[in-house]
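Morning F.,

Quick status update on the modeling queue. The single chain you submitted on Monday has been processed. Sequence for confirmation:
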Amino acid sequence: MSQTAKLKRFYQTVTADPTDGGFEIHLDGKPVRSPLRALLVLPNKALADAVAAEWAAQKENIIPEAMPHTRLAFTAIDRVIGHRKTVIDQITAFANSDVVCYRATSPEELVARQNEEWNPVLAWAKRSLGARLTTGERIEYIAQDLETLEALTAAFADKSAFYLAALYTLASNASSLVLALSVANGALDAETAFQSANCDELYQAEKWGTDVSAQTRREARAEEFRSAAEFLRLVQG
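Structure tokens below.
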């Protein structure tokens, strides 16, 4: 469904029913299908109930933007299943542009804030994932070494399509694979991780005032980040 299309609610009942391999969402007893016509089968009851609740909450019109769990589930089914290697490679690639690795050299206050917020995350990645990430000045491209990339990839390569869809969303909205993995592994909550990802932008807003358009974009990304974190929590049971 496009963001501008309006689809009238056409059903009365919504149920999450067990099936082979998980739970299907049924509208008036009929199974929901993805945009590519695959059955919407969720891996566990917690996620299925959350998706069913989104469908049940729709009023006169179905609003896709109000259904973040459904949208991520469709992404997992249509765009991750059958394309695992490509998606895994795309997620790993975030490490080479990871925001926590690109450091300011001035002013001292910003440098100190980056160190305070980002150094513990890098220490966690080294300790928990075996990934020793390289940092540098923000004007330089930083390519992480193969050993580091392999360690990061090993942290998610065997996960489900639903996990990968959520992790990609976290990494893209934070511009950081390390912060995404810290949320996925419970090392940081979503709010803390997203604030950390926007350390530079928030510092600039404090010093020079808020840019309304930038704040609007940041709030949209924050909402998508929170939804993906909750989706990932449900996927992991």
